[in-house]
Design goal:
By secondary structure, this protein is of the alpha/beta class. The chain has helices at residues 79-88, 106-117, 136-149, 168-181, 192-204, 211-215, 219-235, 249-260, 271-275, 278-281, 305-314, 330-334, 354-363, 369-383, and strands at residues 3-12, 15-24, 27-33, 46-49, 54-57, 59-61, 91-100, 124-131, 153-157, 184-188, 241-243, 265-269, 320-321, 400-410, 429-439, 442-446, 449-450. Helix 4 (168-181) packs across helix 7 (219-235) and helix 7 runs parallel beside helix 8. It is globular, with a radius of gyration of 21 Å. Bound molecules: N-(aminocarbonyl)-beta-alanine (URP) and zinc ion (ZN) (2 copies).
């Protein structure tokens, strides 16, 4: 059976068009402009009327943490609940992480993570490989993941000493491997050694409220790490480098500077840095302030970070918006180890709201509809080796969202689908709402109702980024 999406405005990264879309066998079959008469439905066609709506590619969230084991707790969304919430928000592909800890084995970590995710996701999914301990064997094994498992990206940490941290020598070695293979190196860029000193000093002085999480992770220490990562990537032979969860003007300036030197550097920001700030939220104290503890941290709204991040998105200094979805329930998880900022698990849940929250940039005039599509779908698909995703084009996977740009909604824990007992965006009134979501041509969400099923999502073998090779 053919499915037709009629009377909508098709928005791709490279332009918009009043057009009808035909889908057959899970792929886009044709996009026919209304000016040319559109598509005349046949008797057997399923017709979805998108009058007044935008018709956009399904979102690609390249940075999520479902059921992430931190060592003391596990993030509260499973692959099933988190991917269901993502689908409700118009995201049809997620990329999570397999995590090798210091001393651990890369291939075993990958098999364990595959076993956790397989048969669970309601939308398509892939995995990046975290290297928590870069040694010769880890690099050999990681190289082999490209062919064996279709994993074309790694993540390295300049933060979290003793847990996931790599020193500069280890990072250089991993970046050399990326320069050689074309694998994308995602880097958590914060100077973890310096941060740990500030944390120790704050705790010793009795400064333990949630805001001290941000105060002990100043933007200068993010910027310094971005700069260092850029230098190391260049020295390594211009490895493809992707800075995750960039949160500050300071760090953004370093990305721009590195790009001006020819560094192969890209960066993502996240909805929390575009909408939430230190003053709004961390001032709340315990327990609610704990909800906003994430790394990199929320920044002060007085320092123009948010304005700079929106501008960075507009002019392509920032390539992508991902969520870094890492949900922990407030009392049972965030506060389980006590009321001191340094023992609170880091992370904010938001996989359901990314398309909506970035769309607020369209509403406010910061970015165009095309750019919204590009940073939420097209660019992450290209950067992470998913040429079949991120655009409404003949032959590509029919992952699509019918988005009502005029609908109003209020974000709330009472209505979200994430397995999370609070919402970082509680009470936020926004314009724009997902109406219908298709994955491989199947309607999985319509009018807030869910029609998907566990395990229908496909594991995505990914290739080396089209941006790079
Ligand atoms: O606070 C965060 N971002 N937690 C998730 C792990 C990470 O650093 O990306
Ligand atoms: Zn990180
Ligand atoms: Zn993360």
């Amino acid at each position: 059976m053919r499915t037709l999406i009629v009377n909508g405005t098709v928005v791709n990264a490279d332009g918009r068009l009043d057009a009808d879309v035909a889908i057959e066998n899970g792929r886009f079959q044709s996009i026919v402009p209304k000016s040319g008469g559109g598509i005349v439905p046949g008797p057997d066609d399923r017709v979805i009327d998108a009058t007044g709506c935008l018709v956009v590619p399904g979102g690609v969230d390249a940075h999520v943490h479902m059921q992430l084991d931190t060592g003391t707790t596990v993030s509260s969304d499973t692959f099933l609940s988190g991917s269901t919430a993502a689908a409700h928000g118009g995201t049809t592909t997620i990329i999570d992480f397999s995590e090798q800890r210091t001393g651990g084995n890369v291939l075993q970590s990958f098999e364990k993570r595959m076993a956790e995710a397989e048969g669970q996701c309601v939308i398509d999914w892939g995995l990046h490989q975290v290297l928590g301990g870069v040694d010769e064997q880890a690099l050999i094994d990681t190289r082999s993941l490209i062919e064996r498992e279709g994993v074309a990206s790694i993540k390295l940490f300049m933060a979290y000493p003793g847990r996931l941290y790599s020193d500069d020598g280890q990072i250089l070695r991993a970046l050399q491997m990326c320069a050689d293979t074309g694998m994308m190196a995602m880097v958590h860029a914060e100077n973890g050694l310096a941060i740990d000193v500030l944390v120790e000093q704050a705790v010793a002085a009795g400064n333990i409220t949630p805001d001290f999480h941000s105060r002990t992770r100043p933007p200068e220490l993010e910027a310094e790490a971005v700069h260092r990562a850029g230098v190391l990537a260049r020295v390594a032979g211009n490895a493809p480098l992707y800075i995750v969860h960039l949160s500050s003007s300071h760090a953004l300036r370093e990305v721009v500077e590195a790009r001006s030197r020819g560094t192969n550097i890209f960066a993502e920001t996240c909805p929390q840095y575009l909408h939430l700030s230190l003053e709004d939220h961390l001032g709340q104290g315990w327990p609610n302030g704990a909800a906003y503890i994430c790394s990199t941290p929320l920044r002060s709204k007085h320092d123009h970070h948010q304005a700079d991040l929106w501008e960075g998105l507009r002019v392509d200094q920032l390539a992508v918006v991902s969520t870094d979805h890492c949900p922990f329930c407030l009392r049972e998880q965030k506060l389980a180890n006590g009321e001191s900022f340094n023992v609170v698990p880091n992370g904010i849940g938001g996989v359901e709201h990314r398309m909506d929250l970035v769309y607020q940039g369209v509403v406010a005039g910061h970015i165009s509809e095309e750019r919204w599509v590009e940073v939420c779908a097209t660019a992450p698909a290209r950067l992470f080796g998913l040429p079949q995703k991120g655009a409404i084009r003949e032959g590509l996977d029919a992952d699509l969202v019918v988005y009502d740009p005029a609908a109003k909604q209020t974000l709330s824990q009472a209505t979200h689908h994430m397995n999370l007992d609070h919402s970082a965006y509680e009470g936020m009134d926004i314009t724009g709402k997902v109406r219908t979501v298709l994955s491989h041509g199947e309607v999985i969400v319509d009018g807030g109702q869910f029609f998907g099923a566990a395990g229908r999502g496909r594991y995505l073998r990914r290739a080396v980024s089209q941006h790079i090779r």
